[in-house]
What we know:
Layout (H helix, E strand, L loop, with lengths): L2 E5 L6 H8 L11 E2 L2 E2 L5 H6 L2 E4 L11 H8 L7 H11 L1 H5 L10 H13 L5 E5 L7 H16 L3 E5 L3 H7 L2 E6 L2 E7 H6 L1 H6 L5
Parallel strand pairs: 1-6, 1-7, 4-5, 5-6
Antiparallel strand pairs: 2-3, 7-8
Amino acid sequence: GEIVTLLGANGAGKTTTLRTISGLLRPSAGRVVFEGRPIDQMPAHEVLGIGIGHVPEGRRVFPRMSVQENLEMGAYQRKGGNKQMMERVFALFPVLLERKSQDGGTLSGGEQQMLAIGRALMSKPRLLLLDEPSLGLAPIFVERIFDIIRQINEQGTSILLVEQNALMALDHAHRGYVLETGRIVLADSAAALKTNEQVRKTYLGET
């Protein structure tokens, strides 16, 4: 039920962690367990089917498919209820309703990020993995994206967030972990991490 953030420098293993959870990679050691069930040997489509959605870095929308078709692709495994989920996505992202017949590749970067999140929500995930949702976005879109992330969480979806904007991530998360070369070196509440001297120097740009 929380927003949990992974912090770390480039190459620390944040994206690899998300890709391993979602079945795109296999762990070399250890296990991935979701709701008491080992999932590290599941193919990605089965991981999606048990309730884990993944919004990859770079958005990866289908550029020559309409906004509505992109959203429908997110629900390809679900049987029924797609109209209600589409309505929920359009309520969160009214601009997507305005552009539902427009090709995904013609949207702005912020709108494509909204489409990528909306597409993941169409599978009705209980856990949503978000990889760099603010990357390359103008500040006004960053604020909007994080407001929507909070709304998604308040509506009952757990979120695991990878985000280079550490201050924004910690402002919205409940808990956080700091990764260095694939290992967790710090774990605490987001509020405590914001006041941690090492985190402030390394990730928040303070001297």
